Amino acid sequence: MKRLSSRRDCLNNRPLVRAIAMAIMAANGGGLLLWQRVGECRPAPDGQPLVITVHAGSVMGKLPFLFRSGMFAYGAERVYPEYLQEKFLRDHRPGAIEFGLNHVIVWSESPADLVRRLRSQPRYDAFLKRIVQHGGTVVLSLFGMPRWLSSRPDDARPVEPGEWMPVWAASPPADYDAWAELVRSIVDYYSHELGLRQVEYKVWWEPEYVRWQGTEEELFKLYQSSVQGAKKADPQAAVGGPSVAGWSSIFWKHRDRAGHRPMLYNFIESAATYALSEPGHGSTPIDVLIWHDFGLVHRIINSHRVLTC
Hints:
- The strands form 2 sheets. A 6-stranded parallel sheet has the order 3-4-5-6-7-8.
- It has 2 domains: 1-66, no CATH class; 68-294, Glycosidases (TIM Barrel, Alpha-Beta Barrel).
- Helix 7 (111-118) packs parallel to helix 9, helix 9 runs parallel beside helix 10 (216-233) and helix 10 (216-233) crosses helix 11.
- It has helices at 7-12, 14-27, 34-39, 76-79, 82-92, 102-105, 111-118, 122-133, 176-193, 216-233, 263-273, 297-302, 304-307; strands at residues 3-4, 50-51, 71-72, 96-100, 137-142, 199-203, 238-244, 288-291.
- The relative contact order is 0.12.
- The protein is α/β, with parallel strands linked by helices.
């Protein structure tokens, strides 16, 4: 039994709760429904301890259609003709399909040029609309810093040998308010000009590696600014992160130091303790918690030990 006595405890232990649900799911198909029930984690009134009770043996009804295949589709709109896109979506009914926006963000030359580039992708936009029409969710990656906004615009070295990404594109913004405005313009385009509702935005890509040259705290500030910009454009916009390569990944600048926790843990804690300036937000929302794990289910189940130590 795990007692959660505050909002921070609730948020920080949500991975544990979901890991429990995953373990039950793996052992007993009837536990699939527990994912939704257990995942709703809120502190009790007046700071009283909250007790979560899991009844693994209960029959709760018919299982919902919970899992749908997803995929990365970077550049797919240029490679696959429309009839193949249509056939794939119709036959497989995938869930989340992720696209990158780094080709728009990184190489833009100004805020106006970024909007122009967004409006100059008819095949890209048509593919996104097609996904939503077939019941899928589009995930757009807000990855890469444009040179005109970078805090290190003159550092053109690659982040590591063989990488396409220059240091200036992996650095924090010189102005976080300007980054929030950049995100606002992107969400405004997809939500209002294009009219897409089934869109989620993820901030950065595997930042625990050298693709983020700032500090961990600066990354979390970037996420907070992203949420502010996105919610300003569309209060219903779903924003998530930190898109790390694994549950237990530690920020690359901290790996030679003892006692550092996984970036995912620190990300959740930062969001729980940082209040947005907009009314009604006592903390920074995490609409989608994102990590990459291409291993087996047992690796996911075992990861909760790292996150709750």
